[in-house]
Amino acid sequence: xxxQSRKTGDILMDRVKTIQAIARANTEQLRLNQKASxxxxxxxxxxxxxxxxxxxxxxxxQNDAALKENTETINRLEAxxxxxxxxxxxxxxxxx
Length: 96
Prior knowledge:
Radius of gyration: 21 Å
Low-confidence stretches: none
Number of helices: 2
Helix content: over 70%
Mean pLDDT: 92
Number of strands: 0
Distance between the termini: 21 Å
């Protein structure tokens, strides 16, 4: 970079795209949490019914991994948004 900051319009466009990505990731997080809750209900039903071989343990492990990965994605996107906000603030100060 040559010392010049990006135009505020470019920063705002990146900010909008990042917010949209966060919204998609949050939607996915909700879906995965709902699936985890459903799997927990199946666990409770198995315990109640005396079932010892839980057929959905692999699904739980996959869902747990997906939840962890999606949480990391959300954290990364939120950090990107924070950096964009800082960049936007600096650009606004520079323009005034």
